[in-house]
Amino acid sequence: MIQQEETVRLHHLVHVVNSLAPGAIPNILRDLQPELAQRYRVSVVALEPITDWNEDLQDLKDNGAEILSLNCRRRNIAMQFYRLRRYLHTNRPHIAHGHMGRAEVLTPLAAPATTFSVATYHTMREGHKHLTKLLAQASNRRLGARTFVSHAVAQSWRGKNYDPDHVVYNPVRFDRFEHDPVLRKIVRRELDLVPESFLFLNVGRLIPAKGQGDLVHAAALLKARGIHNFQIAIAGDGPLRNSLKELSATLNVTGHLNFLGHRQDVNTLLTAADFFVFPSHFEGLGLAPIEAMAHGCPLIIAGFPASREFVTDGETGHVFPVGDIKALAGLMEAGMRDQAGFARSAVRAQQSVVRQFHAATICEGYSRIYEGGANHLNERNYCSLALFRSIPSSGKR
After folding, report:
1. Is 40 helix (H, G, I), strand (E, B) or coil?
2. For 51-83, how does the pLDDT look when each residue is reduced to its tens digit (9 = 90+)?
3. What is the model's pLDDT at position 194?
4. Backbone phi and psi for residue 234, each to the nearest 5 degrees, phi listed first
5. Could you say which of 3.90.550.10, 1.20.1070.10, 3.40.50.2000, 3.90.1170.40 is the CATH number of the domain covering 11-168?
6. 123-148: pLDDT as tens digits
7. What's the rounded Cα separation, in Å, for the pair 11 and 17?
8. Does 3.40.50.2000 match the CATH number of domain 175-357?
9. Is the dihedral of CA 56, 364, 108, 85 positive or negative?
10. How many CB atoms lie within 10 A of CB 55?
11. Residue ranges per domain, the chain?
12. pTM (2 d.p.)
């Protein structure tokens, strides 16, 4: 646990999130926290109840973050606004940073004038619901800074009219990735893999945008070509779980698909995997493939716009057109035939993402925005106070 000096008064930074259910946002905050804790007193406020206290949340707390929930129902936006406003006006943090959907638009509306508000857009504009887009427009005047997790997300919201310095990628903590040959053998045995089988790993929610249906169809194509020495493990849960299982049964590839459900041990699964495959149709950035690259796992990925910001086809990964099942199956077959070549691209990828996504680099990017905005806000509030004090009183002495 990081100990903060009591004699140093750190700026209070509040992250506001919709939920702390397992997913990308808790992972991002977990990986940023060791760096942020050296500069700020950090609180994480969830609009919805915390229903699953897991290792990521414990890691956040152990690294000095205060974690609390406003216990609002998902669809009760009025209650979310009321309770968030009450919390922010009571605690008056220096910086309030909203992440994703409701949190990113309610935070500037609920924050007091003395708080510098930041909203990070994690998804493409088309990924937001109509109500969220309307609220985003309403919150613009109260917003201190808007940041984006990729240039693709920035362009989807602002066209070419955005500040490149406000693109701040999601972080990766590289100390979490270690190769363990013994652990690899253990996990592969647990997955019932025969020694000569290739393991393709996918991680993500089971929703249409993640493209796991394409992966099931690709398995059927490989089987039709007489290729049987492979297994696809999908770590994640969601509304498509049953329909994906039914599809794999219909295509007669049940023996090649392993639906693992939500897993906390993705790092362990990456140790066991031969390839990481990511057929997503669109992403704000794509944290799962970046973590796979950091682990040194060869990557096969759909060419959605944000992927171009961290993957060079043939150099640091292997890219196929979004939704092109034949091309996906072709790259999976190519990986099995040229494992050494794909491994070389994985080494280059690992070196690349260390430079681009290190948590210290990402923390520095956010800190520049936080400090610049907070200093400007302090100057504005000081000038307003000075102006108020300079106005002669109209009352009689």
Report:
1. strand
2. 988 888 999 999 999 999 999 999 999 999 999
3. 85
4. -115, 115
5. 3.40.50.2000
6. 887 766 666 667 767 777 788 999 99
7. 19
8. yes
9. positive
10. 13
11. 11-168, 175-357
12. 0.85
